[in-house]
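Structure Section — protein described below
Tokens — whole-number codes for backbone shape
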Amino acid sequence: MSGNGKRMLESALALPPVERVELVEEMLSSLDFPARADVDALWAREAEDRIAAYEKGELIARPAEAQELAARAKRIRAQAQAASEKTEDSRQ
């Protein structure tokens, strides 16, 4: 990435989340490709399905921070398990 691109990225990352999303949407829309309408339609359908599931009580919502912590904990447990298995294998 050029120096100018890096400076723009730093500025973009300093924006509030909603403005970053708007910026990303605008940038993606500038990359007009044939399947774009199909991709947009699939994402719209996915969003509608998730909202419907949430409204029916089939899906729980939790803060992004909690989701990130859960994902990090899962990765750490998997790494610990892999290290444990490797240690056991080396002892045999």
The chain is about 80% helix and 0% strand. The mean pLDDT is 88.
